[in-house]
Design goal:
This protein has 999 residues and is mainly alpha-helical. The chain contains 44 helices and ten strands.
């Protein structure tokens, strides 16, 4: 346009107003010879301004005009463009949304005529219409051209709003069906002898099978082959394999016209390692015997699309009972959810926030949730057996399996996210599910979705809103109807039937679904504020309970806690408002018996699970001692004082067990603790500190009641064994020695009687039956064992050890550490025994042989009858005893000259031995791993069963709970046992070399 500056400025402004981002370039294009006759036509400018990207549309139009075969063809295009609004909208709409289809039109300039007119049948074409559109393709190149021509018509209807997103996806699937048929026909024509030998059926899976394909997507298929009558089966299968492989290449390979899409057969039995084509009988045998849960989930969308359709229908009919019976498989729900989590975990960190399909709140969340519900309820309700996500969601809502409001929100979100995905892929016809980062791409994407006011900001806001809806609903979708089944519903709302609720609970892993429904009814029924909050909480809690080995116990205990605390104003508010509390509670209640038992004795301890309330961080020994001593001071007598101290101990045991469980299971916001040793150290340190503080409080209570402020004798308690080593487990006794020293002027007999009374009263008060767990005191490691006095003076210990001490007593003293009472006396006791446990000359050979004999005798005499030694965490090969005796022998032999070995803690001593070169890095790591694992097993058994044990449980549910604590998913208890055996076997090899053979 050669015009005055003012005119140019006016055009420039008009182009800006119509949505052009580069008006100068647009002016130059409108000034080109091809558009000379229409450049001032307002109809053209308005039509360009209505597209997703006016700049892109104008560039595409200029290229298309330049590609026309002569002036006559160009004039025909321009005349039709200006005169026919339907063509104008369709053609410019495609050019403004898809650079790839603009490229196609530039290469095949007459294809624009496919958009000129539509017969009524062309408005919603199906497979037959697309087959006619591909009929003239005689080779892979012409098939690609014909495919793009058909795709052009779908895109035109899509961008103009003639069809909505679900219809677009269905048409794309129908086009894929027609294309697979055409490709198979080309393969058959190229090898007629092969085609004559076999029957070959192509079964679509995934989005193609579900009639919901994207613009660019792998087309998932499996192949079924049979011999024709009279043909050899092996020859027929080889022929069918050649045909199938050729068909895949026709679609997948890149030619001068690009490729169509990859045909992916990796969902077949055995994946890439399995034969490409199998007989129906072979397919059936595989799915009956070997298939995993996800493979049945994939078959949910199976439908025959090409080849021998009768054979394809036989395939689908034969496999239907297996697909709809998949929910009866053990750990079905857990397997499906684990697969979903694995998909999310594999998304690169840089992409997770841009993933439309796989990320949290993405399309896959909707699809997984819908498929899960279909598989659980589809066996009994044939109306749910649709391969199309939105149709299945509608059927689930109609049947009461999903709340109508939830289904409507998910339908809306899914349509929006699929529309985004379609328009992102349409631009360059590339397979991607990532939201672009470039502002120009985001602007075009927003405008293509009819977001014209501030398209980038509006698109981002709407996308995040829909993703948030999906995140919030996709898990709730499975659990909310269980509450509706036992609660009053709004008029017109369908109710989940009792049988359907039972099916769903069984699929979730509940052993007693009838009891579970009773608990839900008790918790969620009614019109009170409490019931309303429970109805909000329970859908999420049910999911967390289901992600455990014992969901029944989790739900039952939650009901008990809620009954006990339901009237307190803070309880439900804590669970509703504090992010961590509800999930922590669900994990703790369903992990085993110990933590819930501790909680039920004082339910108010649930406050520890929140973000406030002190949290789950174990308290220091000094803090615990201070609290217990203060409680004792406030008490009227020793019984009340020790009761208060035991109450603190119970609360703190709950805190520690809860921290251990949450750290082992992980939460949605915090993954499980990767360092297993850190969890072992946390429990050992916390429980040992708690025992020491409890003894200190009990000692003060007993002395205060019997003697006032001062006992006639100084009195100290020495921790031994795991207690002294800061390695107590939940069910461990407290191994101790008692030592006293008469005060100046006090008769020794009086002092001894006072010390004896203190010990007797402490042991009695700590074992009095009550709601709090007892603390059992074991003094059998004292001189002369059970035959010797419970308490001795320091001078008596000195005389005994100087004259009578045996090798086993030196060995036991390696763990001796002052834990309560008179600090100076405790320090002098440890100074007394240091030369015994760290002898300057080390150990002579006779002493070493004696230790080995003791170890061997212990293994043979103390191992329970009938126990599997290889799975005994304490006494079995490679267990705690093996590792500890090996480390302790190193301490006895080298502790005098290696200061780092002078510790009561096994792992510290092992690390010191490695640092001193007494053991190799590899051997030390092997022993440490075995010791940590064995300790974790003992802790797990106590947490799960509520009583101490050194072997894996035999009850499957308890064994599964131990596995979950140790990081093994449902159904992997066997893997856990195998891993334990391997770890212990390696450790035993090191023990054989170092303890029995060397050092």
């Amino acid at each position: 346009m050669t015009s005055a500056p003012g005119r140019r400025s006016s055009t420039f402004t008009r182009l800006l107003r119509h949505g052009f981002t580069d008006p100068s370039a647009a002016e130059r294009l409108l000034d080109s010879a091809g558009l000379a006759l229409v450049r001032n036509d307002p109809v053209l400018l308005d039509a360009l301004g209505a597209t997703a990207d006016p700049d892109l549309a104008l560039r595409g139009l200029v290229r298309l005009l330049e590609a026309q075969d002569g002036p006559t063809a160009r004039q025909e295009l321009l005349d039709t463009l200006i005169a026919a609004k339907p063509l104008r909208d369709r053609l410019l709409g495609v050019l403004g949304a898809s650079e790839a289809l603009a490229d196609h039109l530039a290469r095949h300039p007459s294809d624009w005529q496919a958009l000129v007119t539509y017969e009524p049948r062309d408005l919603h074409p199906g497979v037959e219409e697309f087959e006619r559109g591909l009929a003239e393709a005689g080779d892979p190149v012409s098939l690609r051209v014909a495919y793009r021509r058909c795709l052009l018509s779908i895109a035109a209807r899509d961008v103009c709003g003639t069809i909505e997103v679900a219809q677009t996806a269905a048409e794309l699937a129908d086009l894929a069906t027609a294309t697979l048929r055409a490709a198979l026909a080309l393969a058959g024509a190229a090898a007629p002898a092969d085609a004559a030998l076999c029957r070959l059926a192509v079964i679509a899976l995934g989005k193609c099978g579900g009639h919901e394909l994207n613009y660019v997507s792998d087309v998932d298929v499996v192949f079924v082959g049979e011999a024709v009558d009279g043909a050899d089966e092996d020859k027929a299968l080889r022929a069918a394999t050649r045909l199938a492989a050729h068909m895949m290449r026709i679609c997948s390979e890149t030619t001068v016209e690009g490729s169509i899409w990859p045909v992916d057969a990796n969902l077949r039995p055995e994946g890439r390692n399995g034969p490409l084509v199998r007989t129906l009988a072979s397919h059936l045998a595989y799915y009956q015997r070997w298939a995993k849960t996800w493979e049945f989930q994939a078959l949910l969308k199976a439908r025959p699309v090409a080849g021998d359709l009768a054979l394809g229908e036989e395939y689908v009919t034969a496999l239907q009972p297996l697909v709809w019976g998949a929910a009866e498989r053990e750990n079905f729900v857990a397997d499906v959810q684990k697969m979903r989590r694995r998909v999310v975990e594999n998304i690169p960190a840089a992409e997770i926030d841009r993933q439309l399909k796989l990320g949290p709140g993405g399309l896959r969340d909707v699809e997984f949730a819908v498929q899960l519900l279909q598989l659980v309820h589809g066996r009994a309700d044939g109306s749910l057996r649709s391969g199309t996500t939105l149709d299945a969601l509608k059927a689930l809502a109609a049947g009461g399996y999903v709340g109508r409001a939830d289904a409507a929100q998910l339908d809306d979100a899914y349509r929006f996210l699929r529309s985004m995905e379609h328009r992102i892929q349409l631009h360059r016809l590339r397979r991607t599910h990532l939201v672009p980062e470039d502002e120009a791409d985001l602007r075009r994407l927003g405008r293509s979705l009819d977001l014209r006011t501030d398209p980038v900001a509006t698109l981002t806001r709407e996308w995040k809103r829909h993703a948030s809806v999906v995140r919030r609903l996709h898990e709730k979708l499975f659990y909310r109807p269980l509450l509706d089944a036992v609660a009053a519903l709004a008029p017109g709302e369908a109710r989940l039937s009792a049988e359907a609720a039972r099916e769903r609970l069984i699929a979730l892993g509940y052993a007693d679904p009838a009891a579970a429904l009773r608990h839900l009814e008790a918790l969620a029924s009614g019109v009170t504020r409490k019931a309303a909050i429970q109805r909000t909480l329970l859908p999420v809690l049910l999911g967390w309970f289901a992600d455990s080995a014992d969901p029944d116990a989790g739900l039952l205990t939650f009901r008990k806690v809620s009954d006990a605390l339901g009237k307190t104003p803070w309880y439900l508010r804590l669970l509703r408002d504090e992010g961590a509390a509800a999930e922590n509670l669900a994990r703790v209640l369903s992990a085993g018996r110990l933590a819930p038992d501790l909680l039920m004795r004082a339910p108010e301890a649930v406050a520890l699970l929140g973000d406030g309330g002190g949290g789950l961080e174990p308290r220091s020994r000094a803090h615990l001692e201070q609290e217990m001593l203060a409680a004792v001071r406030r008490a009227d007598n020793a019984v009340q004082g020790v009761t208060a101290a035991r109450g603190v101990r119970r609360r703190e045991l709950f805190r520690t067990s809860a921290a251990d469980i949450v750290g082992s299971y992980g939460t949605e916001s915090q993954p499980a603790e990767a360092d297993q040793g850190a969890l072992v150290d946390l429990v050992g340190g916390a429980v040992s500190d708690l025992a020491a503080a409890t003894l200190a409080g009990t000692l003060r209570a007993v002395v205060r009641e019997g003697w006032g402020d001062t006992l006639p004798t100084r009195f100290a308690i020495i921790g031994m064994g795991r207690f002294g080593g800061h390695e107590l487990g939940y069910g461990s006794d407290a191994d101790v020695l008692f030592v006293h020293e008469p005060r100046d002027g006090v008769d020794e007999r009086e002092a001894a009687e006072a010390a004896g009374k203190v010990v007797a009263e402490m042991r009695r008060l700590l074992q009095v039956p009550s709601a709090d767990p007892p603390l059992l005191i074991d003094a059998d490691l004292r001189p002369e064992g059970k035959s010797g006095p419970l308490v001795r003076t320091l001078r008596s210990y000195e005389a005994y050890y100087r004259r009578w001490s045996l090798v086993w007593e030196r060995h036991a003293l390696l763990r001796a550490e002052h834990v309560a009472g008179d600090e100076d006396l405790g320090r002098r006791f440890t100074e007394l025994v240091d030369p015994l446990r760290y002898p300057a000359a080390g150990l002579d050979e006779e002493a070493v042989r004696e230790i080995r004999r003791l170890k061997a005798r212990m293994e043979s005499e103390r191992l329970p009858r009938g126990a599997d030694p290889k799975l005994h965490a304490k006494l079995g090969p490679g267990g705690l005893s093996d590792v500890e005796w090996t480390v302790q022998l190193l301490q006895l032999r080298h502790g005098a000259r290696e200061p780092g070995l002078r510790t009561t803690r096994t792992r510290q001593a092992l690390a010191a031995a490695r640092a001193a070169g007494l053991i190799s890095e590899e051997d030390a790591s092997t022993l440490d791993e075995a010791w940590v694992l064995a300790t974790r097993v003992r802790n797990a058994v106590m947490l799960v069963r509520g009583r101490a044990g050194d072997t894996f449980p035999t009850v499957p549910r308890e064994l599964g709970a131990v596995g979950r604590y140790l990081g093994y998913g449902p159904g992997h208890a066997g893997d856990m046992l195998d891993a334990y055996r391997r770890t212990a076997r390696r450790a035993r090899g090191v023990v054989e070399e170092l303890f029995y053979g060397g050092l």
